[in-house]
Amino acid sequence: MALEYEHEQLADGGSVEPQVGPIIIVDDEPVILELIRDILHEEGFSVLTANTGAAALQLIKQRAVALVLTDLMMPNLTGLELAHRLHSDPATATIPIILMSAAMPPDVGDIFADVIHKPFPLEVIVQVVRRALSA
């Protein structure tokens, strides 16, 4: 799936951040969801949130997303299980997935575009998202 960017050139020769499809944040902790959503909104990204892996799957089936940013440890469907389900479906297999967690599984292979270890400085989120979207 190709990412569609809209890049706006400003009159002074500068430009604004390229716009991509929505990013979905998946975490069962509401404070983390709100914090990351707000940071990415401030940077000009369109953001959807889900508090479970199952809710994220439903949202992704309803609309295309550019990137998934997921926690690992969640009830019912972990971030790793979510990643496996997305990668096993040809319609979602190419969506980059970033894992964020304090607890790391022994081996996640190359299923994730990046891994962020909690706790992390907030500016890291924007850097990692930009890197994953430009890959």
Q: Could you give the topology of this structure?
A:
Layout: E1 23-26, H1 30-42, E2 47-50, H2 53-62, E3 67-71, H3 79-88, E4 97-101, E5 114-117, H4 122-134
Parallel strand pairs: 1-2, 1-3, 3-4, 4-5
> Oligomerization state of this entry?
single chain
Low-confidence runs of at least 5 consecutive residues = 1-18
CATH topology: Rossmann fold
Helix-strand string: EHEHEHEEH
Mean pLDDT, all residues: 84
Give a quick account of the main beta sheet: strands, pairing sense, barrel closure: 5 strands, parallel
> What level of helicity do the residues show?
25-40%
- Please report the first level of CATH classification, the CATH class: Alpha Beta
Tell me about this structure.
By secondary structure, the chain is of the alpha/beta class. It has helices at residues 30-42, 53-62, 79-88, 122-134, and strands spanning 23-26, 47-50, 67-71, 97-101, 114-117. The protein has a 5-stranded parallel β-sheet with strand order 2-1-3-4-5, with helices on both faces. Helix 2 packs parallel to helix 3. The longest helix is centred in the first third of the chain and has 13 residues, at 30-42.
